[in-house]
Amino acid sequence: MLEERTRSMASAQARELEKEREKSANLQISLQEERKQNESFKKELQSLRLDKEKTFMEISKVRSELDAKVAETKQLQMKLNGWEQQAIGISIENLKEANKFLEKENNELKLKRSELEASLEASRRSTSSKFSPEGTDALSRHPTSLDKERLASFLGKEDMEKSLQMLEKDLQEARREKDKARQELKRLKQHLLEKETEESEKMDEDSRLIEELRQTNEYQRSRILGLEKALKQAMANQEEIKSSNDHEIRKSKGIIEDLNQKLANCLRTIDSKNVELLNLQTALGQYYAEIEAKEHFERELTVAKEEAMKLVARLKDADERLESSKKEKEEVTSKLLHAEKIAEEWKNRVSKVEEDNAKVRRVLEQSMTRLNRMSMDSDYLVDRRIVIKLLVTYFQRNHSREVLDLMVRMLGFSEEDKQRIGLAQQGAAGKGVVRGVLGLPGRLVGGILGGGGGSPDSHPNIASDNQSFADMWVDFLLKDAEERERREAEDAAIKDKEKTSTQRPTYEQSDSEFSTVPLTSSDSNHKLSRLLT
């Protein structure tokens, strides 16, 4: 029954611990999922930002291309206008200069021609006046002078004719040059017309290019407007996604905070469980120390009983010797009174021992309630102080078999380990209350050492449920002790009856024997009371 109860309680505590572990594992999984969602949201935001940057880059490229094309069209238009103005200006200036030069030459030729005509008229007039009758008279009068004048006029006329011929040649040359200039002017006009046609064709081509550029500009503008609309829509979508992501992030932050609070609460409960476990381990150490003190006290009590039996035998010997001498009888009677006083003292000590047993019983009940709160998860944990105390006690008691048996049961030796140290497999029942305690199941002791539970004050319901188990265990131990004491008392009474018929020792010897009785129960009672306090 006890083992089933302890197993059921340990299994319930193990199930609770498994539930807590599952809760903590679920919390960790949810935290990891939230972190993954946050990372995915961050990646989406980063991708949206990259898309936005790419759209901005494309728009900037399109704008730069459009600006470059607009600048090229302006430059082409400026070049075209410059070329037209330059060609027209050069042709007009050339024509004007040629016309001015020709007009100037024509005027010079006209002046020369008028001069020559005037000189010719003058020469004609002079010759006509010379051939008149007055002239003939004069010629006849002055024949030599006339011959001279004729010769001079003839020479001058030849010179004039030569000069006229020269002037005619120059005039003809001027006319030819004028014709050449007119032809050149016609050619220039034709060239100018051809240039104008070429320029008009170029203008048509340029206008066609400008129209194409305008069309491409309009297409680019429409594309830019479409891209801007798409960008605005993408930005609106991005804002919506950002708001939804912010909302999700806030939700996830709230969930993370709740999970962190739950995790902190779990950690606090774990710390409280650890503190309770340490308290239970210290209580277990005190419990084993009390058990050791009780064992020591029981050994002293058995020694005292043996000494009392010896004293009773010696008293019987003293009664037999009283018959032989009255003086010795008086002395023996005084010593008997002294022995009675000692017996009264022993009775008082026995009553004190019973009170101490009651205290130990209460302490044992508390320890058993603590034992019942322990779990079964840590069967192989033993307090270092208990092991040290067991080893010290084992060597102090000259390799006591009981201490070795206690170490075997506490440390859970296997059958092979028991055979190595020379212990055979023993039954569950032992001698004394300590053997009864050592008869506890190994899992219950393991639960004391490794399991976690609350203190008696913090768990009154569990203490009340386990009170019956502690009472049953203490009653079992006390009944076992009472049966052994009753058997030992019966054996002692039988021995006393057998020794009443034998010889009695001398009073001096009994006195000396009485003086050697070790009265250490007060020391043990002091130790026990100190452990209980």
Explain what this protein looks like in three dimensions.
This protein has a domain at 382-418. The longest helix has 182 residues, at 143-324. The chain has helices at residues 2-130, 133-141, 143-324, 326-373, 384-396, 401-411, 415-421, 432-438, 442-450, 460-465, 467-500, 507-515, 521-532. The chain is mostly helical and 533 residues long. It is built from 13 helices and no strands. It is rod-shaped, with a radius of gyration of 73 Å. The model is unreliable at 130-146, 425-470 and 503-533 (pLDDT under 50). This is GRIP domain-containing protein. Residues 15-24, 484-501 have a biased composition (Basic and acidic residues). Keywords: Coiled coil, Golgi apparatus.
Quickly describe the structure.
Keywords: Coiled coil, Golgi apparatus. The protein is an all-alpha fold and 533 residues long.
Q: Label the overall shape.
A: rod-shaped
Residue share in β-strands = under 5%
The overall average pLDDT, rounded, is 69
Helix content: over 70%
CA radius of gyration is 73 Å
Number of helical elements: 13
Could you give the order of the helices and strands? HHHHHHHHHHHHH
Unreliable runs, pLDDT <50, ≥5 residues? 130-146, 425-470, 503-533
Number of strands: 0
User: Helices and strands: which structural class?
Assistant: mainly alpha
What is the rounded distance between the termini?
Answer: 33 Å
**Largest beta-sheet details:** none
